[in-house]
Amino acid sequence: MGAEPLSDALLLVDVLADFGHSGGDALLASYRSALPTLLTTIEDARSRGIPVVYANDDFGTWSGDRTAVIQEARRRCPQPQLLDPVTPDECDLFVTKPRYSAFDHTPLDLLLEGCGVERVLLAGTATEMCVAQTAIAAREHGYLVSVLVDACSSVSDADARLALGYLERIAGARLHRGASPPSRVAVG
Nearest-CA neighbor of 145 among 164, 126, 160? Predict the structure, then answer.
């Protein structure tokens, strides 16, 4: 009898990004470049029945209300129409986060555990900051991690390369390039 395929979740970190900070212009340019792959990744995950989980900065609303977070993200974005295609669907899961890691002081681990997730497919903003910290925390919580490199954006390409190298060589994350999440691979 064959092994069961991994149970995945697509974890989107800060895709409702705030570009109004030092490095915001570079992040916005990178976000624009990654957006087509990010959209394809989200669509593919939904079509394959992979849960889509948003973990986003709260922007100081501290309401945990996805509508309030989306409105605030749109208000802060110099091109709010860029956020429209990546806003969560009603069926998507949504948590707000107060720190870089989506696991730090959030119910994310409980949510993923409740969904039976074994592998986190990780995309978002910024690779060298929140994505990297979330990948490390996911590994610490016992999840397998695949960083969907082409669906991530960064402030600094050089720092993103360093972060991805660390995630692959030290933290044990897998790096995946391309527009579709990696196949559910059987384990065992």
Answer: 164
Global confidence as pTM:
0.93
Helix axes 157-166 and 132-140, enclosed angle (nearest 10): 10
What's residue 64's pLDDT? Answer: 83
Q: What is the CATH number of the domain that holds 63?
A: 3.40.50.850
CB 182 within 8 A of CB 120: no
pLDDT score, position 9:
97
Structure tokens at 86: 């990546």
Is 3 domain-assigned? no
In a domain? residue 186: no
CA dihedral (47, 93, 107, 156) positive or negative: positive
Spatial distance between the Cα atoms of 143 and 146, rounded to a whole number of angstroms: 10
14, 185 Cβ separation under 8 angstroms: no
Could you give the 3-state DSSP secondary structure of residue 13? strand
**With contact defined as beta carbons under 8 Å apart, do 115 and 151 qualify?**
no
* pLDDT per residue as tens digits for the range 21-80: 889 999 999 999 999 999 999 999 999 999 999 999 988 878 888 999 999 999 989 999
